[in-house]
Design goal:
The structure is a single chain. With 468 residues, this protein is α/β, with parallel strands linked by helices. Helices cover 46% and strands 14% of the residues. The protein has 19 helices and 14 strands. The longest helix is centred in the N-terminal third of the chain and has 38 residues, at 100-137.
Length: 468
């Protein structure tokens, strides 16, 4: 088996897993598929130009190893051999590649490849459960159960596969709509359940959901530290809700093609319309009271911000943060905007229609918001109060992952606020400090001449004393 894998893949190491099968029905063929342990270094350098690495034989005669239809592009890392008696042998490769039998063969190979991955993931999960049960029977092993689980996860062959080829499965979620359900069960994510340290499947997430929870929550960001400390998670963490962390740039593209899993809708915690599922009548009434209480403030702030804010509403997701910005359900998130603007050939004009208007959500219980409400009612035209409102706006943008639109205006407002906090009368510059005049320096030649003159005068003075 190792010799066959080495000859087909050009790799001396053992494969991570393999499957051997015989397909019957409208077309018959024999095949063996391998998954290597490590991806090639140039896997994503020319992704859309890569072809399947499958060897096709017809009646044990090698035809080619570069057929596109044998395996979809996102499974191009799979190596294998296919032998069929149903394909014509005495035709050109170009004609054979257009043969409809080849497409049927490709569908069956894809189905078997995904079945191989599913069995690998199920076997790994079963081994972990058995190891945990064995550790539970032994008191000494139970004391180090956490270490055993960590060691077991490191040896998990499916996690090894996921860390090497997980991006390909996410690409399959985008490209292969017919197998999207099967691919969704192969996905692995890090979540808030264990601090983002271990991989979890969507099935495991659903199994840990609250009884009243209706959605699968996720948040996307630049890195793990950013998503863990996000203000969007405050109320969800307080309710004990699990959130999936998406930190790979391809994650948001892939998740857009997976609207639900096991009847549970996937919902971003950074977009408007967030609901938890445990809302009661008293919560609805309280929200209405807060909305009515903050109505003067939201109206005043909308007048100050103008077109920079689509609308201002009372938030249900904040606990200790004064305010935050969310986007519409079908617009770009802050992370997606950052990704799109970082593209080498990005055109802001072409993508502007996808950049959604931002909604500002305020925390009605926060002291800053309450004080701003008071000041906006007492002196709505105060420049100092408007500066505070704009600083709240810009800080919320940064805290939500968006850039500040006008950095110069933000800096000026910040300096004015600092001046007020330091009780400065003005920001005018002080007069320049006066530099003291330095004493004149006598040059060395002049000093020597003065010394010589002094020496000549001394003997003359002695002669005058003698005459006297």
């Amino acid at each position: 088996m190792l010799r066959l894998f080495s000859s087909s893949a050009g790799d001396d190491t053992e494969p991570l897993t393999w499957i051997h099968f015989r397909a019957e029905g409208e077309i018959e063929f024999k095949s063996i598929l391998f998954i290597p342990k490590a991806p090639p270094g140039d896997m994503y350098d020319n992704y859309y130009g890569k072809q399947s690495q499958m060897r096709l034989y017809v009646r044990k005669v090698l035809i080619t190893d570069e057929f596109e239809d044998l395996m979809p592009r996102y499974l191009s890392f799979i190596r294998g051999v296919v032998d069929s008696d149903d394909l014509p042998l005495n035709v050109s490769r170009e004609t054979l590649q257009q043969h409809k039998v080849l497409r049927v063969m490709g569908k069956k190979l894809t189905r078997k490849a995904l079945e191989m991955l599913r069995k690998l993931s199920q076997k790994a999960a079963k081994d972990v459960e058995e190891a945990a049960e064995a550790a539970g029977d032994d008191e000494e092993a139970a004391a180090t159960e956490g270490d055993d689980k960590d060691a077991e996860e490191k040896k998990d062959p499916y996690i090894e596969f996921w860390e090497a080829f997980g991006k390909n499965i996410k690409l399959g979620l985008i490209e292969d709509s017919s197998n999207r359900t099967k691919l969704s069960k192969l996905l692995r994510f890090k979540t808030s359940a264990d601090g983002g340290d271990k991989w979890s499947s969507l099935e495991q997430y659903v199994g840990r959901m609250k009884e009243w929870q209706k959605s699968i929550y996720y948040i996307s960001g630049k890195d793990m530290e950013e998503v863990k400390s996000s203000a969007f998670l405050e109320r969800l963490m307080a309710k004990g809700l699990e959130v999936i962390f998406l930190t790979d740039p391809i994650d948001e593209y892939a998740i857009q093609n997976l609207t639900e899993f096991d009847g549970k809708k996937l919902q971003s915690v950074t977009k408007e319309g967030l609901k938890f599922g445990d809302e009661e009548d008293v919560d609805t009434k309280r929200a209405e009271l807060y909305k009515e209480q903050m109505k003067p403030l939201t109206k005043w702030m909308k007048g100050v911000y103008g077109e920079n804010v689509e609308k201002i509403s009372v938030s249900v997701r904040l606990a200790s943060t004064p305010c935050i910005f969310v986007t519409s359900q079908y617009g770009y998130s802050a992370n997606m905007e950052r990704i799109m603007q970082s593209q080498a050939f990005a055109d802001n004009k072409r993508t502007q229609y996808l950049v959604s208007k931002k909604t500002m959500e305020i925390n009605p219980r926060h002291p800053i918001v309450v004080e701003l409400l008071k000041r906006s009612e007492e002196d709505p035209d105060s420049e100092e109060t408007k500066d505070l409102a704009w600083l709240l706006h810009d800080t919320a943008l940064l805290n939500s992952g968006f850039p500040v639109a006008d950095a110069k205006a933000f800096s000026k407002r910040m300096y004015r606020t600092m001046s007020s906090g330091l009780n400065l009368d003005s920001l005018d510059l002080l007069p320049e400090i006066e530099v003291p005049e330095e004493p004149e320096v006598v040059e060395e030649e002049e000093e020597e001449a003065v010394v010589e003159d002094a020496e000549e005068e001394e003997p003359a003075a002695d002669d005058e004393k003698k005459e006297l």
